[in-house]
Request: fold
Amino acid sequence: MSGKVASGGSVRSAVIGIEIHVQLRTATKMFCPCAIPTDADEPNSRTCPTCLGLPGALPTPNRAAIEKVIAVGAAIGAKTPSTTRWDRKNYFYPDLPKGYQISQLDLPLAEHGSIEVTTSAGVGSVRIRRAHLEEDTARLRHERAGDGSRASLIDYNRSGVALLEIVTEPDLRDAETSRRYAEELRLLLRTIGAADAEMENGQMRVEANVSLRDSEEAPFGTRVEVKNMNSFRSVERAIAFEIARQNELLDAGGSVTQETRGWDDTSETTYTMRAKEDSHDYRYFPEPDLPPLAISDAWIAEIRARLPELPAARRARYVADLGLTAYDAGVLVGEPRAASLFEAARAAQPALDAKLLANWVAGEYLRAANEGAGEPEPKQFAALVAAVGAGEINGATGKALFAELCAGPLDIRAVITERGLAQISDDGALEAIAAETLAASPQALADWRAGKQQALGFLVGQAMKASKGRGNPARLGEIMRRLLDAQ
Reply:
């Protein structure tokens, strides 16, 4: 996963490390019983003395959050210590009510794992240094009053929500790999049920540390942290821009300043936010209100046994056992809902052609799901795809029935029979329909004779209407062309 940057005759190597914060999928916050806030909640309505940092309030760890991070560690092949502890990360910022954040420093819940990433250059592995738990901060909202003055408002609803922080080794060398890593990590988190990880609403926040050096063997250069990337597209573009910015700065004889920069989607540039602190600036020390946590091998084994099939293993199985292409396998596995429907439909009809089923799931299902349609019942979905595959109904009829199936319960076999939807494939019946259509369309015939090939499509469409949508379109096309050639 190496990459070179060239500008103005200089060739430098980019070094990238990724830090990702993910809101875990839990019912309550990390150290208190407050419910996880939603966008519909009034500001500061999901709070208590603990997440507000009031004197005398004591934290209590969320077991579900701890188990989810242990599960993430198992999924990436990381090590989990027999004992972990909590630490106070001290810094003073308006969105941090206590003046410190409960986090983990020396004993994270998972460390030394990896994730396999596929890019246009091939397959490679990104090492993950650590994954640890911490609590989220409050949210600042900056507003301008009618008189032009500015005010900063604080909403503590998010304060104390369980956050998973995942930090890579500086293994990444280009913007594309960085994006693919973030996408693969989100897929893994969603597959095992650890998080929803929706970037657009802040559930997953990606930060990149970017630096350049003269060669792969040279010491690392000065790193710059890039924040405020709210989509995978932004991750790739922001890192690519920052690599180019640093390279141009060095070519001009300047030096890179260690700082935190934000990404502006509108101008597609990074901008200075603040000087970057080092870890010693946070003055970590063990959290006195929380004892160390013992993690037994039996507990880890129990969590590992609950893991579902992981994305990389499922993609490999689809290719090796079902004969799907790597692309088809990637599309299915890339959306857990799609993979779930594919698996359930295959279980309902094991003999169903895997490629045909994959096409329907990746095509019609994902399109409808992205438009907000309901979930089709897997058994009936399998029956629908099987009917199309057997030529019992044509594709247009199948798509119409699929829309109904997404809207509510539907017995596919009964509907095909009751509505008389069976496809007409008999050549004699199709030839009669084609002949009648041709006789009723003299202008189309004239167009054909004048060399207008599109007349064939028009005539086939008219024939399909005459068959009430039940005709076999491929056979109708062949028959219509034969009749036209005979004129």
In short: The chain has a mean pLDDT of 91. The longest strand covers residues 10-23.
